[in-house]
Amino acid sequence: MVDMEDEDLLAALGVEVAPLNTGSHTPQEERLIAGFEDILRFVKTHGRAPEHGEERDIFERLYAVRLDRLRALTSAHPLLAPLDTHGLLAASSSRTTPEVADGLDDEALLAELSLAGDGGSDDITQLRHVRSFEERKAAEDIANRTKCEDFERFQPLFERVENDLKSGVRRTLRFGRDASVAEGNFFILGGQVVYVAEMGETFRTPNGEPDARLRVIFSNGTESNLLQRSLQRALYKDETGRRITDADAGPLFADKMEPDDIVHGTIYVLRSLSDHPFVAEHRELIHKIGITGGKVETRIANAATDATYLLAKVEIVATYVLSNLNRTRLENLFHRIFQEARLDLTIEDRFGNPVQPREWFLVPLHVIDEAVRRIQDGSITDYVYAASQAALVRR
């Protein structure tokens, strides 16, 4: 057969083609078409029209209600007839109109269908919030999770992120300031921490936008195989959706000052001159790490009467001058890095009350020096302190 265009072939068969007058629909007509297209997609997927019944899922029952009302709205038939390849508008309803709600109260049904206008009218032409196919697919993808069989691989990552958030090394930002989604990113969605474990090759959607298939792990031990844009839409819609920042040194030495920042600061390392037996025995290893915006000498002037300094004089063994320093975050970072080597020592203050200083660590001076350098260049996030080796080691 000679190749023929679709229009020529239909003409040869005696079929008259009446092209749709696209681009001239009113917003009201476009809403009607969008609502009917949802029903057509259902028919294409299931091979039948949507039906009423308690055993049907909520979307099928809603589509059945919508179809009944479109059938009753004869004024919309000329608009929808060119789309009605299955003869849906001509078929009769499986139930009478008073029963189409199928157990749903009017308010809940109309709210879901967005049929109610400002005056409470149930006119089908008031359909205003018909969810697009993409939006519904995104919601289904997020909800359709399975058990993560290798969750033990990812659990340490979630624990580390939780600790980083507590110590201030990471922060949470409202999703949208940065709407990107990439492999290795962490988010908060629906009250759970979400980790993008894998990202497939990028492809183009029908409207030309980039997308990719993701493997997403949730902190409750489940996972979902969903599209990048589905995750983005879910994060946008979730009022509590947040991005968890990377654990880098940016917030510690940033260009933008924050309330707890100091323009110029000094990290100082002290060694105690206490005659406490344990301190005296390990004096070369026991160090206090602190931060001040003023002179270190002024800070330690009253060390002998302050339990924070073990009620003894101290000597300064190292200082590091830095700019645009967030004191709280940096102190928390040091404490997190060396938490396994924190000095477990209780002394009595001047009033006889037991005190356990928290800023003293059994760490060699050269390791502290290395930690400061790695904080400055941002590589500290790849290291932890191994007390058994007295060294910083890669995670």
Describe it.
The chain has 395 residues and is of the alpha+beta class. It has 3 domains: 106 residues, no CATH class; 110 residues, no CATH class; 134 residues, no CATH class. Helices cover 32% and strands 21% of the residues. The protein contains 12 helices and 17 strands. The strands form 5 sheets. A 7-stranded antiparallel sheet has the order 1-8-7-4-3-9-2, with helices on both faces. The protein has a 4-stranded antiparallel sheet with strand order 12-10-11-15. The protein has a two-stranded antiparallel ribbon with strand order 5-6. Strand 7 and strand 8 form a beta hairpin. Helix 2 crosses helix 3 and helix 6 packs across helix 8. About 13% of the residues have low confidence.
Shape: elongated
Overall number of strands: 17
User: Which structural class best describes the helix and strand composition?
Assistant: alpha+beta
Oligomeric composition of the shown chains: single chain
Characterize the largest beta sheet: strand count, sense, and whether it forms a barrel: 7 strands, antiparallel
Helicity, in percent? 25-40%
Portion of residues in beta strands equals 15-25%
Distance between the termini: 68 Å
SSE order: HHHHHHEHEEEEEEEHEEHEHEHEEEHEE
